[in-house]
Amino acid sequence: MKSLLNQKFTGSIQVPGDKSITHRALMMASLAEGTSVIHSPLESEDTFRTSEIMGQLGVDIKREEGRITVTSPGSSNFTTPEEVLYTGNSGTTTRLLMGLIAGIGMDATIEGDSSIAKRPMDRVRTPLGKMGADISLVDGKYPPILMKRSTLKAIEYEMPVASAQVKSAILFAALYADGETTIHEKIKSRNHTEIMLEQFGVDIEVDGLSIRLKGGQSLEPRDVQVPGDISSAAFLMVLAAITEGSDITIENVSLNETRAGIIDVFQQMNADIEIEETSSEGEAIGNIRIRHSKDLTSFELSGEIIPRLIDEIPVLAVLGAFGSEPSVIKDALELRYKETDRLRAVIDELEKFGIEFEEFEDGFKVYPLKELKMTSDSFKGYHDHRIIMMLLVMAVASNTEINIDDTSAINISYPGFLEDLEKLKQAR
Ligand SMILES: O=C(O)C1=C[C@@H](OP(=O)(O)O)[C@@H](O)[C@H](O)C1
Ligand SMILES: C=C(OP(=O)(O)O)C(=O)O
Predict the structure, then answer these.
(1) What is the pTM of this model?
(2) ipTM score of the complex?
(3) Which residue's alpha carbon is at the smallest distance from atom 10 of ligand 1?
(4) Span from the CA of 339 to the centroid of ligand 2 (angstroms)
(5) 413 lines ligand 2 (CB under 6 A)
């Protein structure tokens, strides 16, 4: 990382494909009998897990530069897997797969890495169980997940937590259930599943916070264009906003309202940001330009915006430290149930730069960093991609060389992150 110090970051770039959309495209293309092509998918460890598992079910997945061709025998002709379905570090793969396997109605065991073993899966088992799925969890909560073949009936379900993973699992199961399933959300979570199901020919009705889907519908093969991932773009956006002389344009990135809460934060902070929407059909797409600003103020985030930027909160802590006033995040208890307890990790690691925090059970207050005061140069990444990239942004922006125990988890969502920083750098 030494080569990235004392630089400014300028130019145009496309970030890798959206992780949430790539997972869904792989799964829906697998459910549809015939051939679908996914253009500009995310090729990373997490999405690789999803495609490997679809392969275990009997789907042919051909990977080429910039696209994946999926040829499926249709979900009624899937092979019952003999081996465990290994989801690695991917919560999205694990939870969406529970809905998909429950729907198809087959015996399977789903297991992930040591982080997945600690993430709650009862939030998916509860609604699927009401539909009739037979799912066993360790201590009623954790993987390995044992699924037994069963038939499903439709439910009406009120979501207790805002979670697109739970919602999507229910929708996958609902495709195969007898009757019409209705889901009510209290706060809207990302809606990629709803948008893509419609693209694959499914009749799905979205009415504000309620979603209705009739069972017995099949998907038709389609070509999917995956936009850039705004959660990956977030690291470049924050770096540009806080590093003198920087001016970055991120092209063809997802601007989906349910994902793009970070844009509101930049606007609240008085950052120098310009948005150009280039397409609003299905998934909104466009370009984001961010320039360095000396006049960043502060943000206060709670309630409905939180699911719209949930994965960006670690790097937003860095942005907050470069504001003129303290910034606050509340209602983000969910961060404690991600790859690691992200609230703990953010505070413990950023405090080593001298950034001060007040911790809440569901968030934090971050104070402006007046003076860099390193208390250590040894950092922990917790095998969490978002924490590692947050630390790299902070280190680069503050011209500080740090040692992170292991940075390999970057490959989970943004394999070319350091290469992209190299491409954008320019000596100051
Ligand atoms: O559905 C998805 O693709 C995701 C939903 C979010 O999780 P929750 O559903 O647990 O909020 C998010 O944190 C995760 O990175 C991806
Ligand atoms: C939480 C994340 O992903 P997942 O839940 O799929 O592991 C993430 O990408 O930040």
Answers:
(1) 0.98
(2) 0.99
(3) 163
(4) 7
(5) yes
